[in-house]
Structures are given as structure tokens and as C-alpha cells.
């Protein structure tokens, strides 16, 4: 049976303490303690504001600040005694402060855990996004280095997983960099959305006390580019809103999808069937049974983790969809998925960078795969177009030639010219020149195409952007 003692924080209204089972069920300190530094920053800004408006004295503020600094030092040294009895990070810190500093009893003036946790999380999102932007940049740089090392390598590009058209490996790697760069931008956008201070919203309807929200926002760095404070505009929305959680988890999930697609290409490329690339031993594992095996586990796990990142997003959408305004305790469950998404995204980006850093292209295999002249069949149709043949007719004629080559079991460029001219009279003696790979690529001069001038431009662009 619960003891008949009141809870330290809200004990006034209660005659019995929470059941031990309830404490175990409802605690969040086991996971929200990672907010400690942000919680303390928030409390310091809040108490500085309370002193500014005269709700506490300067001496009380200084005592609170010194106490909070000491607690943070203990937490960082791993010496702080977290206690599930105090439920969450906010109350653990407040209780510890109360034991050291009498003025701690005034710290929660004009504040609720509802606006407190919303503030802590917005600070956390800003910091988390900054970390992920850097990690993803690291993966992009690793890909750029791989592209630089393989500037002269060509492979077939695929559609429907069938060989389609030849591309420089760099062009393929640039596609991956584009995907990751959008992710990086997305995290920067999430950070910008998080950059609005909810503190001062109270539990739901603000406070009757004369607080200065803009002062707090400024002190915590919730400012625009010109240094002007940014504060939330509706107290009810501010404590109920979890959009940033969803947007953060979305950015993680989409990064996961991109990492997964890159990983899938690498899995295929490293198989004996393709053998375009050799992945580094350090990011592969062997089989406990088959001695010859080298498995691309880092890539497979990148694919797998993306499922988890999508699951976290789904958890948040489901968690919030049916909640009445404003705060409901369900919302405590908003933190494990975003923390997990952060942790997994961070390690995924690092593993992706590590995997591609040690990867080596197999030049012979790439050259052999790209040598098939049929990959330039579309260029042959373009050749006819330039001779005035309508594209559909040109496509048909080249299709017929491909069929003929297949029937005669010869490569497309080995067909006799007179046979080819029988299919369409617009083919000239120069038709085989189309199959020169470098010439074919040199003609792809438009923006975003894989021609050498464009590839060079892209190298410059990424070298500058990722410097
Ligand atoms: N641990 C709580 C959470 O994460 C803090 C807010 C609690 N608010 C309340 N009214 N019980 O959501």
C-alpha cells in the first residue's frame, strides 16, 4: 500500500503518495534526463527574468543560478542521483535544488511543466538538428571524395533494375549527395521552426504575474536573424503543439529512406552479380557458417534502420491525432521516438560515411558492364532525329536493329552498315560512331546531365558547398 505521505510537488491536494507501480509506470526521468542541460538553461533564464521583473531578488536569482550550475556539473560528471520517485527531469532537478537553495521554492513561479517541457524540447531540437546537419555533411563529403577518386569510371545507370544508359560513377554519387543535401536542408528548416519560445504559456493560459517572455526568449537564443526575440503566439497551442516533433521525425524518416536507397545500390553493386564495388571489411561481416561469405551488413542495417525511423514518425502521428487540447499526459510518450530517431540518424550518417570511405570500385567490372553498345541505343535514335526522322519512327528503327543484333548474336555496333541501312535509309556510314562512350557523354551538355563539363561543374559546386 502507498504510504500516506504527500508528493513533494503537488502534495497539498493529496492525502496519499502514488503507488510504487504508478511511479514505475509514469516516470520519464529514465529517458528525459538527457534534457537536463536544456532544462537548467531554461530555469536560469526563467529565474533571471523573475529577478528582472521583481518577483524574486537578485540574491535569490544568484543562489538559484549557483545551485543549478552545481547540479549541472554533477550531472555531467555522472554523480547526480536521479530518482524515479521524482518522476521526470524537471522535478528531479527542482528537488535537488530545493535541498540546497531555499529560494528554489520560488523557481516555479509563473511556470508549468507544460511550458517547461515544450521549451526544453525546442532547445533540444535546435541542438539535435545542428548535430545532424554536421553528420549528414560528413556523409556527403565522404561521397564526394569517392566521386573524386573515381572521376574516370563509368557504369550503367539503371531503370527497372535493367541496364539503361551509361553514366559516370560521379554522376550516380552526385545523385546520392543531392538526396542527402536536401535532408541537411530539411534539418536546418526544422531547427528554424523550433526557434520560437513557448515559456510563459504556463499550464495553458499564461499567468497573472507580470513576466517578460521576450527577455526569456532572448536569454535562451530564441531570436531571429536580427536578434529579435521569437515567442509563441497562443498559450494553448504552445503547450499542446507537437508539430516540431513530427517534422523532426519526418526529416529523420526521409533521411532514412535516402540512406536505405543508397544502401540498396551498394548491396547490389557489391554482389558477385554486379561486382562494381568492394566494400571495406571494417563495415562488413562474415558468416558463422559459410567461410567464403562477406556480407554488406552496414548497408543492410541502414535499410533496416529506416523502417525504425518510419515507425517513430508513425508513433508520433498516432500519439497526437486524437488528443483534446491542450496538454495530456500521453504527450510524455513523445520523447522516446524523437530521441531514438536522433540517435539512429546520427549513427546511420556516420556509418554511411564510413562505409563509402573505404569502398573501392572494381574498374574492370565497371568497364565491362558499360561496354555494351546497346546502352547507347537511345543515342542512335537521337542520331536519326538529327537527320530529320520523327522520334517515334527513329525509336522503332533502332528497336528493329537491336532485335536484329540479338537474332544474329552480335553486339549492336557489329552489324554491317548495309543491314542497318535496310532497316532505315537515314542511317549513314557514320552510324557506328554513336557508340563511342566518351563522345556520347560529351554531347550531354545541359544542366543536370552527366556530360563531362556538367560533371566538372558539379564537382566545383559540391567542393565549395561541402568545404
Ligand atoms: N514529464 C512530463 C512530459 O514529458 C512533463 C510535463 C508534465 N505535465 C503535467 N501536467 N503532468 O510530458
Estimate what percentage of residues fall within beta strands: under 5%
Sheet with the most strands: spatial strand order = 1-2
Query: What overall geometry do the principal axes of the alpha carbons give?
Result: elongated
* Helix and strand sequence: HHHHHHEEHHHHEHHEHHHHHH
Main beta sheet, described? Answer: 2 strands, antiparallel
Oligomeric description of these chains: single chain
Brief summary of the model shown:
The protein has 467 residues and is mainly alpha-helical. The protein has helices spanning 20-26, 29-32, 36-52, 58-76, 89-100, 113-149, 169-194, 213-219, 235-240, 243-270, 297-321, 335-357, 363-370, 377-386, 391-407, 417-423, 437-442, 452-465, and strands at residues 154-159, 162-168, 277-278, 360-361.
What can you tell me about this protein's structure?
Helices cover 58% and strands 4% of the residues. With 467 residues, the protein is mainly alpha-helical. The strands form 2 sheets. The protein has a two-stranded antiparallel ribbon with strand order 1-2. Strand 1 and strand 2 (162-168) form a beta hairpin. The model is unreliable at 1-5 (pLDDT under 50). Bound molecules: arginine. Residues 28, 32, 88, 113-114, 117, 327, 329, 331-332 line the site of arginine (ARG).
